[in-house]
Write the structure tokens for this entry.
Amino acid sequence: MKYLLILFLILTASFITFAQDVKISGKITGEQNAPLFGANVVIEGTIDGATTDSTGYYEFETSKTGVQNLLFTYLDYNEKRQTVNIESGKPMELNIQLKKAVVETEEIIVTASSYTSGQNSQVTITPLEIVRIPGSDGDLFRAITTFPGSNQVDEGSRITVRGGDANEVLTILDQASLYNPFIFDDDFNTSSYTTINPWGLRGINFSSGGFSAKFGNVLSAVLDLKTYEMPQGTGGFLWLGLANVGMSGVYLNKTKDFGATIDIGQTILEPYFKLNGYLTDRYDPIPLARGVGGSLAWKPSKSSNLKGIFDYSKDKIGVRNTSPSYDGFFNSGSETVFGNLKYSAGIGSKTYFSMGLSYSNHIDDVLYGVLNTVTKQRYAKYRLDVTHQLAKNVDLNTGGEYEYNEDRFDGRVPQYNYAIGNNAPYFDINSLNHTGRIGGYIEAQIKPAKRFFVIPGVRVDNHTLSKKTVVDPRLSMGWKFAKDMVLRGAVGLYHQFPRLEYYAQSDNNNLKPEQATHYILGYELNKMEGIFLFRVEGYYKEYKDLVLRDKNNFLYTSNGKGYAKGIDVFLKSGITNKYSTWISYAYTDSKRSQYEAQNETSANYDITHNLTFVASYNISDVITTGLTYRVSTGKPFTPVTGGIYDPNLNLYQPVYAETNSGRFPTYQRMDVNFQYIFSLFGRFAIAVFQINNLLNQKNLYDYTYNFDYTKREEIVTTNKRQFYMGLGLQF
């Protein structure tokens, strides 16, 4: 629910501030006077500042006067402080040149499929870009789907990568694994949103394959998120939107060794539904979500930092759904508590370590006809990572983790998936399953030559429930064969242990960890400090030991297999200081035998073609507009070919064609937004107007059938043309 609340947070700290007393402007350049796109300038101890455009130009206004320190930063460059005397009503122009940081081991991009520039350098996507992408609603996961290889699932926030399922993507926040960072997750034809606030993120590294040995128990992709050790200033914000309200605040003390953040929000969807012509009688209750989160940070010394993060969210929804056997409301709700404590410190000049302890508790309840279940999932994790510089050209990374997972399932489940009415036969399930996983890794970053980089690594993981141990060797390398061009590749073995619910329905917990082997080769052209970026990457993933249901005894086995292959293309350009754009295209061919599919067929999210276009335009200094257009091949689905009458239940049983042998029509959607910055009560304010699905495209979500399955009707997504508006105010 934080997705629009943080809009004005980011725009205040990283965009153009307005209606203050003194205008400060200038240009930030790098070596050879090349403009730096995305560099930051801020008055220390405040949130007054800006981010440079594609020409290196910045501009903001502030009420601060007198002697102030301006901090100029750009990742991979040395930061620079400039003391200035700000005089009321007197504009100031300040041009700054930053010098490249000397980090010998990170000269080139080496991580295959990773949308970052180096291990600690500027990320390709910034928080500012996240909130400015039309249709993303300020949601990190939705923004990620504009990159090649990733797809949005049913207009929700869960993402799938390169033909894999959503559960093959691992999200990490400050060493903690995030398994359920969503509201309205997996509800019937309802958009979900992540609870992650991009405002507090200093690093966003999305890797769609070939990722580091430090990440285990994941098959397809990793989203590695790092927060700021300390808040970047002090201030507060109020958001009043058509669908939501919220308040955020940040605090940093004068000595900058203690800071805190708070974020509170709630959805209020009834006026939003009425404006957009929703039939509110389809919902009971109307979707409701609320949440609160925050952090505390303390620096015991210059080289150490202790930070705690807390987040709580709760949602509830009821959506009317008509099936052949039942007409009623699909009711669901969830509640999530998450906490993470991280300590990091340097030991001398060559060693750095960080350790974290996290806990999450997630509860889901579902009621639909005879279906009535409560699922409780608990996770606890401890992790330690150490980086040590062995030599000038060699860094050694090592670490380990222990994770505990508990899954409790209680309730009644229909005996037949086609008979879900209140009087349908059912069976009770009361189960408790738990397991532990211990893993460790070692990885070296080696630079044998100035333009060549290689990262060999290996990790080991042991699963206490299945008593299985896996060893995953991995290798990635990069060659900067020209000034702006890099060739890179990766090969590696990856394992992921099946979810606990599958072990509960297997023969004596005898499931193997699912396996994927990655082969990746890519080329990148990066000119003018990231103003122009082009990359193309081909990949092949071979799957083994996938979870597959035995058609004779209905127990799960490890006999599934498959593959995914394709090519990703990405082009990003800041054409002028007013206009920027990126285009992503992905071709995917993914087949597998898994779950109910006995033969290799299209995977659940085998999207053959996926094209996304994103553009933003500064109409003036205070008005910005943006557009997102995406078109993709429809998702596979399993058609129903007819029905067979069941006299015992007095209803028809559906007859299915081969798994995923059908496809929905082509998916299309266009979103636009407008942002206006002005002064309200002498304070910075921003107004937002957004139109999602501008062309009112009726994208197909599913089919519903009549009683004997002889006729079907289309169910389109709830995301028809939607209008949204909101107002943010700094205080």
Observations:
- The radius of gyration is 26 Å.
- The longest helix spans residues 5-14.
